[in-house]
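Write out the bound-state structure for zinc ion.
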Amino acid sequence: MKRSYLLIALIILSACSDSADDSNREIDTVILNDLIQHSTEFEKKVYSFENGLHIAVGYGIANSIMVEGVDGNIIIDASDSVAEAEEVYSYFSTINSNPIKAIIYTHNHGDHTFGAAYYYNLEVEKPMVIAHESTSQYVERIMGILNPIISKRSTRMFGTDLPSEQVINVGIGPYLGVAQSPIGYIKPTLTFADELKINISGVEIELYHAPGETNDQLFVWLPNQKALMPGDNIYRTFPNLYTIRGTPHRDVKSWVKSLDQMRALKPEYLLPSHTKPLTGDAVMETLTIYRDAIQYVHDQTIRLMNEGYTADEISHLIELPTEVSNSPFVREFYGTIRWSVKSIFNGYLGWFDGNVSNLDPLPSEEYARRLVTLSGSEEKLFLALEEAVQEKDMQWALQLSDSLLALNYKIDSTNKLRQEAIQYIGGRSLNPNKRNYFLSSANELNRNYEAQPLLPQTSELLREISIDMFFEILSVRLNPKKAKGITQRVCFLFDSGETRTITMRNQIAEISSTNKNCDIQVKTSEQTLKESLAGVRNPVLSVASGEIDTGGQRTKFLSFLSNFTE
Ligand SMILES: [Zn+2]
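---
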């Protein structure tokens, strides 16, 4: 999965369809040149500073930082996989092989947490795992109820199913490596709400909750070294104020506030969790430009919202002032202004743009039918699609293909043209999120496409996730057709002494800890139930073997579980 710069020449060629002529190839080279150049930001290297700070850049999507203490070291962000962590540490340990005393997560994302088990398992005396108090809840949400959709959209955004030569970079790193080895997330063992001041192995460390790229984000401040680790609240591209893989609303105003909190400390070293470190005057200058860029987009979006413009209109109206846009830190290699505007609008006003046409619009199938009536026939619409593709009017082609697909018209041919349009737009996009999302979506239209699991689950990982998340997963998996007319209560008694109950009625599954009037009483361990529900072990065998003890009601229990399947 390692990417070689030699492959970049191939990318330019493969970005063009077979039918593309030479002039098209030249255009691609020019457009993509900046993105290719941006990859130099992730050249694999460990930067070491005289004050015991070391930062590994380019080993995976996110950086890992080692702080040397007197008799032990601290790791800030643990890479996106156990394999990456091992590679990073094979270098770090040549600098200082003292035990790892603590692992700090700057936030919940997998590229900062999934390699932790490597460091954790190295030590007999287990390191502390420090994070904000809400971090585990967000990890569980991604590993739990949102796993299917977040995995799918992340696969697209990071291009993890694409042939490696098609991924130039992923904007904030060379590639996402989470699927390279089992997920090594370790649940935090020390958490805090607003701030935590702690001395670890002789190093004074201050941690501050700093919502921005995520709500659980923190930054690390080493007062004696004047060194700042801002997590993902700053990296060398326009910030991802919204991420297209899907995210809860990112509070942009708090993001600015968090950057101001960092500026107030007047740091001399900036070791971000993505892209290269900065030192000296560049630190304050960059923090200032970055917060100004974010504030500008936030404030101008609100100003135009108040003038009555819709999110879509505003997204085409806002451009950064030149003084700000000249900074290499705000080029749109990760977030974009257009997507940010829509997210800010949505964060304040919700999805309704205020236009009455859009409150209860025609369903897409009905809209397509009216479009067919206007154009004369479905075939006319299809010819318009063919023409749009031929004329390279590709966004229009995509929208036409939406309507034809809504009517199930010539599905194979429509999808073939749609695939060409997606490849064309994606292959020319300077933004790697968009580029990878499009190229991956085009890939999915291939007949032989098979998705590879992005977040494979293991027994070790399941131990780090609370039992409550598994009941939440069951709740959102309830198939209402199967559950229609069923009223049933299943009570779980775990060997830990914990109880949980599912009451099924009105095609919902209420989760509680009531342990009365149970139709089925189940006794098992939390881990057995987790593994059975996650597919790590076969639930039928667990029930048959009595590891899940149903009190003699095996068939009834398995039939109950079948309500949670498609
Ligand atoms: Zn990150």
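---
Residues 62, 109, 111-112, 232, 273-274 surround zinc ion (CB under 6 Å).
The chain has a mean pLDDT of 92.
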